[in-house]
Design brief:
This protein is an alpha/beta fold. The protein is built from 12 helices and 9 strands. Strands 7-6-5-8-9 form a 5-stranded parallel sheet. The longest helix is centred in the C-terminal third of the chain and has 24 residues. The radius of gyration is 19 Å and the shape is globular. The chain starts with 12 loop residues before the first helix and ends with a helix. The chain binds phosphoric acid mono(formamide)ester (CP) and norvaline. The site of norvaline has 10 residues, from helix 6. Phosphoric acid mono(formamide)ester binds next to helix 2.
Length: 307
């Protein structure tokens, strides 16, 4: 059976850990591991994107290439789907040409529909609901830095957006302590919250200081995600006080690290000095997208081959 990667929660803890460990090996042996080149052996994988991307697009293209596959980038405006061709028709047609699809979309339901009607694996390259490939890479980054993920105190400061939802799923999988500070009205997905709030070590607050107090990891993201641009001015007002800056960082543990999936808006959700500080793992995080996605592709396509 094909394995899609729509949400982090689609995978078990053991599966995520095995991918993280492989990512570590891919990182160490990037220029010497000839075996890894054969995993995608001339398989063609399309990247269908409705939104801009630097990291996801480039890291997937390079990952696919380095695993011996062929990436095809498709801006949704250039294919008939952009003119309204039904996704279920697109899915069936593309399944007959390709071996896999990475899809970045506005509406999560479109992604689910694509996965449902495709006979090939579909990977979520970001939707309005979740961003699992980013959080997979972030978990790898924390594993590299701290070793054991399970014991960490992780704080989320900012919007309850796609990244926040995937962090809740990571909490549900690994059971680490997660405290999220979101302004009123910007909480994460209601269903996910309902599940997480059953755990004693998950908290939701409106107070960023409470969230970062004693944290090992401070995590944030843009206040205005792709698709939210019309709300820009209101959001800038509502998120005042939710900036990750030196003062906030001081409330966390001395050796706390800062994560941001990028792109960042300096002076809004995060300050320049925090991005550039020694506590920032932001650019390691970005590099790790490549290694984590190679491990993800290997996991998905090795499974494919064995059936
Ligand atoms: N973090 C991330 O997904 O970046 P891009 O939008 O550049 O792909
Ligand atoms: N929450 C952001 C993440 C960008 C990688 C967005 O959806 O625009």
């Amino acid at each position: 059976m094909k394995r899609d990667f729509i949400n982090l929660i689609d995978f078990t803890k053991e599966e995520v850990l095995s991918i993280i460990k492989r990512a570590s090996l891919f990182k160490k042996t990037r220029h010497s591991n000839s075996k890894s080149r054969k995993v995608l052996d001339r398989k063609t994988i399309a990247l269908i994107f409705e939104k801009s991307s630097t990291r996801t697009r480039v890291s997937f293209e390079v990952a696919i290439n380095e695993l011996g596959g062929i990436p095809i980038f498709l801006n949704v405006r250039d294919i008939q789907m952009g003119r309204g061709e039904p996704i279920k028709d697109t899915a069936r047609v593309l399944s007959s040409y390709l071996h896999g699809i990475v899809y970045r979309c506005f509406k999560h339901e479109m992604l689910c529909e694509l996965a449902k009607y495709s006979s090939i694996p579909v990977i979520n390259g970001l939707s309005d609901y979740s961003h699992p490939v980013q959080v997979l890479s972030d978990l790898f980054t924390l594993y590299e830095h701290f070793g054991d993920i399970k014991k960490l105190n992780i704080a989320w400061v900012g919007d309850g957006n796609n990244m926040a939802n995937s962090w809740i799923e990571a909490h549900l999988i690994f059971g680490f302590n997660l405290t999220m500070a979101c302004p009123k009205g910007y909480e994460p997905d209601h269903q996910l919250l309902k599940k997480a709030l059953k755990n004693k070590n998950f908290k939701l607050t409106n107070n960023p200081v409470e969230a970062v107090y004693g944290a090992d990891v401070i995590n944030t993201d843009v206040w205005i995600s792709m698709g939210d641009e019309e709300e820009s001015e209101q959001r800038k007002k509502d998120f005042k006080g939710f900036q990750v800056n030196k003062n906030l960082l001081k409330k966390a543990k001395k050796n706390a690290v800062v994560l941001h999936c990028l792109p960042a808006y300096r002076g809004l959700e995060i300050t320049e000095d925090v991005i550039e500080s020694k506590q920032s793992l932001i650019f390691v995080q970005a590099e790790n997208r490549l290694h984590a996605q190679k491990a993800l592709l290997e996991f998905i396509f090795k499974k494919e081959r064995s059936v």
